[in-house]
Amino acid sequence: MDNSEKHHQRIANMTFSSVYPHYVDKVEKKGRTKEELTEVITWLTGFDDKQIQSLIEEKATFETFFQRAKLNSNAHLITGVICGYRVEEIENPLTQKARYLDKLVDELAKGRKMEKILRT
């Protein structure tokens, strides 16, 4: 994984609103719903649908997005490979949180059961 400061800054400065439509497309193409995506994001961050929409409208960066989030106490249970890297081994906290979200979206798109995705 590119552990350079430049890579981490790129993720920090990326807006949630620029990535969210891709998340929606990805899960809907695989037969899942936007509501299920919201449930996953809510589980990870504590944001409800209204807060998610507000962050999209605000064009909040991932840095702002995760600063405001109340990360689920079970987020550390998210393990596995995303983009060729193990999420549990990512050292930069913000990059790791962004990859947690990517991993959950991937699991949703792959048809994994919601109770497994939400680590219950």
Radius of gyration: 13 Å
Characterize the main sheet.
2 strands, antiparallel
Q: Span between N and C termini?
A: 29 Å
- The helix tally amounts to 7
CATH class: Mainly Alpha
Please provide the ordered H/E string of secondary-structure elements. Answer: HHHHHEEHH
Provide the β-strand percentage band: under 5%
Number of strands: 2
Given the helix and strand composition, which structural class is it?
Answer: mainly alpha
**How does the overall form come out from the CA principal axes?**
globular
The low-pLDDT segments are none
Residues in helix, %: 55-70%
**CATH architecture annotation name:** Orthogonal Bundle
What count of domains describes the coordinates?
1
In which order are the strands of the major sheet placed? 1-2
The fourth-level CATH homologous superfamily is uncharacterized protein sp1917 domain
CATH topology: Helicase, Ruva Protein, domain 3
